[in-house]
């Protein structure tokens, strides 16, 4: 009963017999785990490689099938989408052009559609617009496992994987919309982003460090980016070595409508420069309002946050 209770909280934690003090999260989305594997046949539900989870036949919209092994050696976009979702349909139209551009450039690239449609008929209608592959709609278990593997919370979501099946970015949607000519493909994460309307959705993906500065013209944000970039790069490298996602995204924000809206929504002071960490999902903010922001100040702020030494204020 204890295990089931933990599952429904959303994280499943296992304590190994040989080391009673060691605890680690082996799986998230525990509710889906229990629903999909009620007999515990896949226990302890640790993460599996993409190739294993996607294994099986994949459809083409000409009704032919191919085995998932055909994805080997390719960059892969895992596309979670549905016909009933207007933002999904808008993204699909752009993504079709991006897909063709990348393929025509000679890159080994494939997309796998994982449907969240409400009927097979809707799936077929939507998939007929797509030139790539799809998990069969009837294979609900495999679709669910892929959702679970990447912790999908909403659609559309486009995950980009490298040729070994390792995640490049969860932000394929943002990258496709910001790079219609696909010049930056395969869209490796950049350490620091300039906050904009198109990438503001990432503020809801997890905790984000946002450095607000007094800058209105193009190029005026560069000194702020240069200040925090080494710290962001160091953190990314640390977690990449552990094959984990970085726990903090980094942004710089100037003086514009997007920044003003974010300040208003989170009730931040008007000071600039202003160093913050915003955790939208937890409705929490952390503010370091100091006269001079130096690399040492930023690094200590990040270190204290990751060590859970900071006291949050509500958003």
From TrEMBL:
Q: Which domain of life is it from?
A: Eukaryota
Top-level EC class: oxidoreductase
- The species this protein was found in: Mastacembelus armatus (zig-zag eel)
Q: Could you state one GO cellular component term attached to this entry?
A: nucleus
Upper lineage is: Eukaryota, Metazoa, Chordata, Craniata, Vertebrata
Which family is this sequence assigned to? Belongs to the nucleoredoxin family.
Among SUPFAM superfamilies, the record links this protein to: Thioredoxin-like
Pinpoint the Thioredoxin domain residues.
Answer: 44-206
Q: Which InterPro entries match?
A: Thioredoxin-like_fold, Thioredoxin-like_sf, Thioredoxin_domain, TryX_NRX_thioredoxin_dom
What's one GO MF term for it?
thioredoxin-disulfide reductase (NADPH) activity
Q: Which reaction does it catalyse?
A: [protein]-dithiol + NAD(+) = [protein]-disulfide + NADH + H(+); [protein]-dithiol + NADP(+) = [protein]-disulfide + NADPH + H(+)
Q: Which Pfam families match?
A: Thioredoxin_8 (PF13905)
Q: What is this protein called?
A: Nucleoredoxin
User: CDD domains attached here?
Assistant: TryX_like_TryX_NRX
User: What EC identifiers does the entry list?
Assistant: 1.8.1.8
What does the record list as GO biological process?
negative regulation of protein ubiquitination; negative regulation of Wnt signaling pathway
């Amino acid at each position: 009963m204890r295990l089931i209770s933990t599952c429904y909280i959303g994280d499943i934690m296992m304590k190994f017999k040989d080391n009673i003090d060691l605890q680690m999260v082996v799986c998230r989305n525990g509710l889906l785990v229990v629903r999909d594997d009620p007999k515990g046949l896949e226990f302890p539900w640790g993460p599996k490689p993409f190739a294993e989870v996607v294994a099986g036949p994949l459809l083409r919209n000409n009704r032919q099938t191919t085995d998932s092994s055909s994805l080997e050696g390719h960059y892969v976009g895992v596309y979670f989408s549905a016909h009933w979702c207007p933002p999904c349909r808008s993204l699909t139209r752009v993504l079709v052009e991006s897909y063709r551009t990348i393929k025509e450039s000679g890159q080994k690239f494939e997309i796998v559609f994982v449907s969240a449609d409400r009927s097979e008929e809707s799936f077929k209608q939507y998939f007929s617009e797509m030139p790539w592959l799809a998990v069969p709609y009837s294979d609900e278990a495999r679709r669910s496992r892929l959702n679970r593997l990447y912790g999908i919370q909403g659609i559309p979501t486009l995950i980009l994987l490298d040729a070994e099946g390792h995640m490049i970015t969860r932000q394929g949607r943002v990258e496709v919309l910001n790079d219609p000519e696909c010049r930056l493909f395969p869209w490796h994460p950049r350490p620091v982003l300039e906050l904009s309307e198109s990438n503001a959705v990432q503020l809801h993906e997890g905790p984000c460090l946002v450095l607000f500065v007094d800058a209105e013209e193009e190029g005026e944000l560069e000194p702020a980016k240069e200040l925090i970039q080494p710290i962001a790069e160091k953190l990314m490298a640390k977690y990449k070595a552990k094959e984990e996602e970085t726990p903090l995204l980094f942004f710089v924000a100037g003086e514009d409508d997007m920044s003003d809206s974010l300040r208003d929504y989170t009730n931040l002071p008007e000071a600039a420069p202003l160093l913050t960490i915003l955790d939208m999902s937890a409705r929490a903010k952390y503010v370091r309002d100091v006269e001079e922001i130096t690399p040492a100040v930023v690094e200590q702020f990040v270190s204290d946050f990751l060590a859970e030494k900071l006291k949050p204020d509500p958003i």
